[in-house]
Design goal:
2 copies of one chain form a homodimer. The first copy, chain A, is α/β, with parallel strands linked by helices. Among the domains of chain A are: 128 residues, 3-Layer(aba) Sandwich (Rossmann fold); 99 residues, ANL, C-terminal domain (GMP Synthetase, Chain A, domain 3), CATH 3.30.300.30. The first copy, chain A, is built from 16 helices and 27 strands. The first copy, chain A, has a 9-stranded mixed sheet with strand order 2-1-11-10-12-13-14-15-16, with helices on both faces. In chain A, strands 4-3-5-6-7 form a 5-stranded parallel sheet. In chain A, strands 17, 18, 20, 21 and 22 form a 5-stranded antiparallel sheet that branches. The longest helix of chain A is centred in the first third of the chain and has 17 residues. The two termini of chain A are 36 Å apart. Chains A and B meet through helix 1, helix 7, strand 16 and strand 17 of A and helix 1, helix 7, strand 16 and strand 17 of B.
Chain lengths: 517, 517
């Protein structure tokens, strides 16, 4: 089970088939593999040894996939950097797992100096662009042109393949490890459940640094089909691309679906090729679902639930999106355990609860992470007796479908991104006027949830909502910054002195059936 | 990755769904799992410890599947005994892997005393039948009724799950080991390639002691669908069962397909539910294929190639069975490497040969056996650098499709020319009077080996030796044509439905030190 095996199979069976399409640039498997083998040689020449981490800070492109495969082909481990992060966040994650090489595209060039200047070990920088590389950087295309192909290092099985950083409840992001074997099994399980379309043309719009996009990428490589890639989600370009490339499979988050179906270009484009729309990150409202089904007739909707630590865990299949199923609320389920996946709902003592009772979702599968990079304590907390503790609260119905109602760990999901309250609270706390703060998620039409900060100021000190927001923006990614700020004299505390976030959240979620979106 | 996980998932999601149908007896997943957990307890009480081998000598039934699952649930390893073997052969295999418990059904009761009397360690015998157990045997039903359920032992991953003895083509049978992980991965790979039918109702007619049937069984458990089981292949009962149980998926070998479509009951039965027909063991002739497609319109044909050591390796998909594909001979391919499987064709030195050149098929995949039970030498011979040496000769075309030309050791060398039996058999099969044939090498003074054909004629039809020879001469080179022809009522078949050429060759080579010249 090694991820580059997918390339060898396609080379044997269909070398002249197109593998990537990026803004009109197409590569066949033969070309793609040739470039991968050369780029792997370049990475080795630049110092990448077996098991070394190499990073990429770039929007989606065909080069992103070449680089991922080249990292594995050359024996390395991929660290795909969150493109929404600030320089300190990027540097933190690169320092944390000692990433020695970084590919950076034009979009993120302004961050290059900051990264090089503050990282513990200044990374070798590779510029993934079309023009000449800036001074002090290698040119991606030149490296490929000037390097000789090397044989596949064939790391696989329990060898580490990827480190993906997610926000941490402790305030610092942690690196989720996935091995070749865990990614491979996670994908196979998914494919057995939701078979790839023959002649599948997937449009990748979600950022590749996310597990959701990475699973789609690997599935498509396993199936030997075509990747159509957009740099990032943009509804107009997306509609145009679906029509031009005859896309038959989409993966979106509900926020994007809404933007797409409300776009003025929708009626102008032929979207008749689309057969599947998979969505994730949050449940979809009946209104959006109905509207989308009307505008995209004949499309199968399915909802997948999972996380970086587990890959895809549950799937709510198309049949649960029919009008009859909607009437029973089945479209609000996150689905049920896929093939090869154990899911159970437990109480605080770890005992399975009866159907219909809310508890924490636990997951066990070959696709679950072996742990967090260099974080034995957090690993031990998340993985107990082989079960991943998701921190998500849900109940299960008689058919095994789970309905997520709450989040046990303190996290906000805004526009499909996980925001850990602790991280935001840490930054707010650094503002000189702030005594204490609590960050919660409040319902938001477009983003599902929005980041909301409740702040107690130090006595005699002042700060405006705007000052707090700007302070945050200087330290963390924009999606983590509070959309709204509320000042109070005090925060509600439990007997143990813990902030009672449930009480803070309650008025915002009044009248809703769930306390998360 | 543990095989009983499939049961836990179905218990969680669909406890009241039917899992087994055997001659009208139906069990739900809830009933089935209850029986499995009790039977596992009984096996432990009878002495089965973790990793111990337990055997079964029985025709196919629902109990066979319960027993397999109970062996795993209780922590044991299954040894499914070849039902075509004599007492000494059964005892050889049980002694070889030290099988301490044996389930035996009514059909094989006459062998019980012989087994008990000659095995190194007399096995505990369990009678799987409906009446009282014979003296000295436990009653299968009584054990279930009187035992308490035990928790799942959850052996999995690299733990041994099964030992399957393969035929004596090379002398003594050897026990092929498969672990929970290798069976699991082999099945997932297969499912990713050939997704299970939703609402799949598979009819099991091939013997469960064979890997081909076991893969189907496990796939069906993974998918959580229905097993309809027949004790063994019998065309009349099969036709009746397809109609009654609305079977949508069949697995056969070409010999069986022929018997089925030539059966007088065919026209009387409604086979409209059948959507898939998978066949294996040998390629199918264009004539049989055409006839079958005419009689079973709308059915997807696919051919899978594999062996006990590797599970399924290649699949020739339905599209290669269309008239256009048949015109190019693509229906004669064994298919190409499935998802997750490496296949290459090598020469005697282990170097990959160019496309179109015949060599030995090598396989590498997570579904390949870790080796033979207690046979390090034979393991080392079969598995070199992680590659399984299949002993099958084939060439690969430009699209990666392999065409098997013969068992390498079955190849006939006549006058210095290589003759591949399959090629001659294909030609003979096109003669209108021929039902089936086997071509072997027999010793010949002048040519070393001479081509000898053993032929079964269609009932009521005639052909002379001369006619056959002339028919061949019209299609292939003279040296490939049979020098001698022998007509028989039937051909000796293995458990897998493969023609036992060894048995055909034996009388010709009696007294010789080798079986080739």
């Amino acid at each position: 089970m090694y991820l580059t095996r997918t390339l060898h199979r396609s080379l044997q069976q269909q070398p002249d088939q197109i593998v990537t399409i990026f803004r009109g640039r197409q590569r066949t498997y033969r070309e793609f593999c040739g470039r991968v083998a050369r780029l792997a040689g370049a990475l080795q020449a630049l110092g990448m040894q077996r098991g070394d981490r190499v990073g990429i800070l770039a929007l989606n492109s065909d080069r992103y996939l070449e680089y991922a495969m080249a990292a594995w082909w050359g024996g390395g481990v991929l660290n795909p950097v969150n493109v929404r992060w600030s320089v300190p966040e990027v540097v933190f994650s690169m320092d944390d797992c000692d990433t020695g090489i970084l590919v950076i595209d034009d979009q993120f060039l302004p961050m290059a100096e900051g990264i090089r200047g503050t990282a513990k070990r200044a990374p070798v920088l590779i510029h993934a662009g079309d023009g000449d590389a800036p001074a002090g950087m290698h040119s991606y295309e030149r490296l490929i042109a000037e390097s000789a192909p090397v044989p596949d290092a064939r790391r696989g099985g329990d060898d580490l393949a990827i480190v993906m950083y997610t926000g941490g409840t402790t305030g610092f992001p942690k690196g989720v490890m996935q091995t070749h074997g865990s990614l491979w099994c996670g994908c196979l399980q998914r494919m057995a459940d939701t078979p790839p379309l023959r002649g599948g043309r997937v449009l990748h719009t979600n950022p590749f640094f996310h597990i959701a996009a990475m699973v789609r990428v690997l599935n498509q490589f396993l199936a030997g089909e075509v990747h159509v890639i957009m740099p990032s989600f943009e509804p107009r370009e997306m509609l145009e691309t679906i029509e031009r490339e005859r896309i038959n499979e989409l993966a979106l988050v509900p926020t994007m679906i809404q933007l797409l179906i409300n776009h003025p270009d929708l009626a102008k484009r032929d979207l008749g090729s689309v057969r599947r729309l998979g969505y994730g990150a949050s449940a979809i409202s009946a209104a959006v679902l109905e509207q989308t089904m009307e505008k995209l007739p004949g499309v199968d909707f399915s909802h997948s639930y999972g996380m970086t630590e587990s890959m895809i865990v549950t799937t709510n299949p198309p049949e649960n999106h029919s009008p009859a199923a909607r009437a029973k609320g089945l479209h609000l389920s996150a689905g049920r355990a896929g093939i090869g996946i154990d899911v159970k709902i437990v109480d605080a003592d770890g005992n399975e609860v009866p159907r219909g009772t809310v508890g924490e979702i636990l997951v066990r599968s070959a696709g679950v992470t072996p742990g967090y990079w260099n974080r034995p304590e957090e690993t031990a907390k998340a993985l107990r007796d082989g079960w991943l503790h998701t921190g998500d609260g849900a109940y299960m119905n008689e058919q095994g479908y789970i309905f997520i109602v709450d989040r046990i760990k303190d996290m906000i999901v805004s526009g499909g991104e996980n925001v850990y309250s602790a991280e935001v609270e840490n930054v707010i706390g650094r503002h000189p006027a702030v005594a204490s703060s609590a960050v919660i998620g409040v319902p938001h039409e477009q983003w599902g949830e929005a980041v909301h900060a409740v702040i107690v100021l130090k006595s005699g000190m002042q700060a405006s909502e705007n000052e707090i927001r700007e302070h945050c923006r200087a330290h963390i990614a924009g999606y983590k910054c509070p959309k709204t700020v509320e000042f109070r004299q005090s925060l509600p505390l439990s007997g143990a002195g813990k902030i009672l976030k449930r009480d803070l959240r309650a008025p915002h979620w009044e009248g809703k059936s769930r306390a998360v979106n």
